[in-house]
Amino acid sequence: METKNIWENYSQKQLRELEVFCKDYRDFLDNAKTEREAVNVIVNLAEKSGYVELEEVIKAGKKLKAGDKIYAVNMNKAIMLFNIGKEPLEKGMNILGAHIDSPRMDVKSNPLYEDSSIAYLDTHYYGGIKKYQWVATPLSLHGVVVKKDGSTIEMAIGDDEDDPVFFVSDLLIHLAAEQLDKKAAKVVEGEALDIIVGNRPLVIKDSKDKKKEEKKKDPVKEGVLKILKDDYGMEEEDFLSAELEVVPAGKAREAGFDRSMILAYGQDDRVCAFSSLFAMLQVKDVERTSCCILVDKEEIGSVGATGMTSVYFENVIRELMNLEGKYDEIKVRRCLSASTMLSSDVNAAFDPSYASAFEKKNASFMGAGMVFSKFTGSRGKSGSNDANAEYIAYLRKVLDDAKVAYQFAELGKVDVGGGGTIAYIMAKYGMNVIDAGVAVLNMHAPYEATSKADVYETMRGYIAFLNAAGM
Q1: Topology (CATH) of 104-248
Q2: What span, in angstroms and rounded, lies between the C-alpha atoms of 468 and 471?
Q3: Cβ distance 370 to 465 under 8 Å?
Q4: Which of 77, 270, 415, 466 could form a disulfide with 306 if both were Cys (CB 3.0 to 4.6 A apart)?
């Protein structure tokens, strides 16, 4: 089947809508470089659209009714939104589910040290990365530090023009003969991904107003600690209760002479998260309850309290059914099994520079629309959800009726590799699930690329899905 570039099909009105939407998306990427930041932005947008926090509804003792808009936040790292439909929850929901975590480097619990007059923060990389891509590039530091008294210090250093940035050093080419003989996986080791944060030793003034070096063992480290205390009220031991993420510095940018693409950090999977959120905020009166799940920890297996394997989602459904006045455990199970879901996640865009990794007939292409992946996993579909033919036929009709451009693809050649999403986790409830999202170049690199047309078309596809009456 021929894959068509969709740019030429857009009207002038659609092109204007596309540019406005993609500008909003770039702003989201700039302000949501971590899960916590993403949740903060999403809560603000949701509340402006009339969504109310679940806890407030429970405290008020209100009964759930069609048209109610509710959100629930899980540990400030995951969020779920619900637009209550005319049908009872027992009849199922239309669910969009994306993740808001991305590959990065996390600062360790005891990170700050000095070596040869250079101060470092020790890190542990998060998710699947090519470690050599993270050296010799400007980096920023985002996250929170929670002190023993319960107060929280928020950090976002390196993205404003006046901010300092950080970096991981690389070996100069003149001395790198041995390094260049190593396999790519070993060129830069995980323990070498420590960011440089200072070089200036702490100095003090004596009683005669003359400068002298601080008589401590690690004067550069002490200088960094003084800055942290003076500027942020933070002591070294506060690193123990900190969550600090090291991410590429800089803003999302338009790419190409024609400005047809977006180059930015974290598009896997915030491109699908924002498109899902936008679609959720656009739909009005729905027959089936629409739901948007934006979770953490997908890049490391969806584990933990804020990942998709947590029972938090189930607990929220129970709370909603209780507010509906029809709570019963069997009805919860009926709701989950009757639901339909798009696991909103990205696929690998075909890259002509690395064509040997793809099977071109079954690859996704930039500028060809929303991507459906019948299954993910790897090597014999291991670890994947495999959507059934009836569900795919239903989705084809929904999207064709809405004139949404879409394509079907696998993630590379058989036996070359593969990847996973949250689809298989949700499929355990017996609901119909398929992966659907945006084709991405440079996936998991510090800067990933998407086509504006694909981002826009995927958002349109999500709206059509949420408005559908169900199978």
Answers
A1: Aminopeptidase i, Domain 2 (2.30.250)
A2: 9
A3: no
A4: 77
Please name every residue paired with 289 in a beta bridge, in sequence order, or none if there are none: 93
Give whole-number Cα distances, 234 to 121, 172, 226, 230, in Å: 15, 35, 9, 8
State how far the Cα of 147 lies from the Cα of 170, in Å rounded to an integer.
34
In the prediction, which pLDDT does 217 show? 87
Determine the pLDDT at residue 212. 54
Q: Are 306 and 297 in contact (CB under 8 A)?
A: yes
- The residues of the chain scoring below 50 in pLDDT are 213-214
Estimate to the nearest angstrom the gap between the alpha carbon of 195 and the chain centroid.
Answer: 23
Alpha-carbon span 178 to 191, nearest angstrom? 18
Q: Is the dihedral of CA 216, 115, 139, 144 positive or negative?
A: negative
Q: Which residue has the tokens 């070096």?
A: 213
At residue 393, the pLDDT reads 97
Query: What are the residues facing 118 on neighbouring strands?
Result: 115
Residues 6 or more apart in contact with residue 102 via CB below 8 angstroms = 127, 247, 265, 266, 268, 269, 270, 299
* Contact yes or no for 456/271 (Cβ under 8 A): no
List the domain boundaries for the chain. Answer: 7-102+265-467, 104-248
Q: What is the 3-state secondary structure (H, E, C) of 238-268?
A: HHHHEEEEEEECCCCEEECCCCCEEEECCHH
Residue 188, judged by CB atoms within 10 A of its CB (0-12, 13-18, 19+), counts as buried
Q: How far apart are CA 250 and CA 30, in angstroms?
A: 8
Q: How many Å apart are CA 366 and CA 267, to the nearest integer?
A: 14
Long-range CB contact pairs, 427-431, < 8 A, 24+: 427/385, 429/333, 429/336, 429/337, 429/339, 430/336, 430/337, 431/92, 431/95, 431/336, 431/337, 431/338, 431/339, 431/340, 431/341
Fold of 7-102+265-467: Aminopeptidase (3.40.630)
8 Å CB contact between 24 and 67: no
Largest interatomic CA distance in the chain: 85
- Amino acid (one-letter) located at 72: A
Structure-block tokens of residue 93: 């929901």
Which amino acid makes up residue 342? Answer: L
> How is residue 379 written in tokens?
């090597």
Report which of 346, 298, 292 is spatially closest to residue 462, judged by C-alpha positions: 292
